[in-house]
Amino acid sequence: MKPALDLHSASLQLQGRAVLDEVSVSVPFGTHLAVVGRNGAGKSSLLRLMAGRLKPTRGQVLLGGLDLAALPGPQRARQIAVVHQHEQAHGQLRVRDYVALGRIPHAAAPPCESAQVVDASLAHCRLTALQDRRVGTLSGGELQRAVIARVIAQQPRVLLLDEPTNHLDLRTRADMLDLLAALDVTVIAALHELSLVQRFAHRVLLLDAGRVAADDAPARVFTPELVRGHFDIDVFHLPLPDRARPVAVFEAPEPVRSS
User: Fold this and answer.
1) Is the predicted pLDDT of residue 87 greater than 70, yes or no?
2) What are the beta bridge partners of residue 11?
3) What is the Cα–Cα distance from 198 to 23, expressed in whole angstroms?
């Protein structure tokens, strides 16, 4: 199967500044990829390239083997869904109507088919009992689940998320990533909280000043050397009784105290 997304030496300049430099990455269908790096490393810009919102200054972005920049907007919308850092939703909309917005790219589908897709999306995100609530009455975690239900209803092949766990508590962050991990689509998420990466990601792409510094399984990217070198923090891989693999714990180094 052709890669869901394939970047060939993609570079991006914005306002004369190099934001991404010769990024090459192939993301097969069904892969869950976490994009990490310091602030300003180029994570959001990379997602915008992958969404077709920006065109590379040099290089190419392919979707299923086709030039993403050449695809019409409606065709891209049937293939790629995007969740931004700060999603806006009209507070008076019912949850079901908000989730149904994901069906806009599939306007030609029979109404009964779209209704079934919306039902399934609500159920997947545990929102069936809340479907008649107004969006403005939802808690932060419930709203984020509604956002995910909306993009699931879009039935994309690729789901792009820019810091989807911002402003959520630890339990809600974990629930959000568990929802993503259960999706049988390509999921690419820029994450700020490194400790959550292993919960859903098959691979980690580490960016440093717009370049790929590492692209591998979480355990091979989150090594003490790489983590200390790129984030100036320490990582410890700790075994837990109920986990199949060690859990990565990130901690700032102890300050040097004068005697």
Assistant:
1) no
2) 58
3) 23
58-63 and 32-36: which strand pairing?
Answer: unpaired
Q: Find where tokens 């109920």 sit.
A: 242
Domains and CATH numbers, the chain: 1-79+156-221 (3.40.50.300), 91-155 (no CATH)
Helical pair 140-153 and 111-124, crossing angle rounded to 10 deg: 140
pTM of the model as a whole:
0.89
The pLDDT, as a whole number, for residue 258 is 64
CB distance 92 to 137 below 8 Å: no
Per residue in 171-180, pLDDT (tens digit) is: 888 888 888 8
Interatomic CA distance for residues 81 and 184, integer angstroms: 14
